[in-house]
Amino acid sequence: MLRTRVYLILIISVLTGCVTVKEEQNKPEFDNIQAAESRISLGLGYLKAGEWQQGRQNIELALKHAPTYYRSLLTYAYLLQKTGDIKLAEKQYKKALRYSPKNGDVQNNYGVFLCRYKRYDEAQAAFAKAIAQPYYYKTSGSYENAALCAMKAGDVAKAKEMFDKALKHEPNRVVSTLQLVRLELKDGEYNQARSRLFYFHKRYGYRADSLYLTIKLESAQDRLLEVEKYAKVLASQYPESKEYRLYLANEY
Fold it and tell me: What residue spans do the TPR repeats cover (predicted)?
């Protein structure tokens, strides 16, 4: 943490030095967005290091530099969420929507916010608006967020539909793949789950969570030798994992 703090302070010092030593005629035109981005980066770095006062100060400076810039508003909204000021956080999201109504990031982040507070229908509408933006390149992420929100709301059919769409846009998404496998196992769609896990392991190798799902799959089909095989892999590669403890407790 100390190394991070020193690094951040050095960046501030260097930036300050660059401004003070240049002659007036050589100063570049002040770029509010660039200044805001610098403060956002610093602010988030401080928050990650646990320096909340410094983090807030930099994020508020970003907002001062560029009060209508969507990333300034989203970062400030994030800070307010973290500090429990939910009403003011939503006000910042709505302000970002007012200034950047066609920005997919704004719609997506607002959807995540709404879902967190169980406003599921509004959240799905926000995700749909993000996905509908013609130049939004994070479509698969918004589909995945919509799926996770649907799961939280208990709408399994919607979740499966959205995970499937996320994977059609980006076939190698880890969360969407494994969550869809979980839902397929619950619905008895074993062939689909098996195929999905096969290609997942081919690309990423064995992970504790994917091995555990494989054990659940083999157990569901009474393939006990396969259960034992994958359990040994789980034990050898991830002996301290939560998944291995679940296996030992026969929770699969």
Answer: 70-103, 140-173
- Is residue 211 pLDDT above 50, yes or no? yes
pLDDT single digits (tens) 99-134: 999 999 999 999 999 999 999 999 999 999 999 999
C-alpha–C-alpha distance, residues 59 and 220, integer Å: 51
15 phi and psi angles, rounded to 5 deg: -60, -40
Q: What pLDDT digit, counting tens, does each position of 7-53 carry?
A: 333 333 333 333 333 444 455 567 999 999 999 999 999 999 999 99
Q: Where are the domains of the chain?
A: 34-100, 101-170, 177-251
Q: pTM of the predicted model, to two decimals?
A: 0.83
| Lowest-pLDDT range of 13-17, 85-89, 236-240 | 13-17
Specify the CATH architecture of the domain 34-100.
Answer: Alpha Horseshoe (1.25)
Fold classified for 101-170: 1.25.40
Q: How far apart are CA 110 and CA 127, in angstroms?
A: 8
How much is the pLDDT for 30?
74
**HEC profile of the chain:** CHHHHHHHHHHHHHHHHHHHHCCHHHCCCCCHHHHHHHHHHHHHHHHHCCCHHHHHHHHHHHHHHCCCCHHHHHHHHHHHHHCCCHHHHHHHHHHHHHHCCCCHHHHHHHHHHHHHCCCHHHHHHHHHHHHHCCCCCCHHHHHHHHHHHHHHHCCHHHHHHHHHHHHHHCCCCHHHHHHHHHHHHHCCCHHHHHHHHHHHHHHHCCCHHHHHHHHHHHHHCCCHHHHHHHHHHHHHHCCCCHHHHHHHCCCC
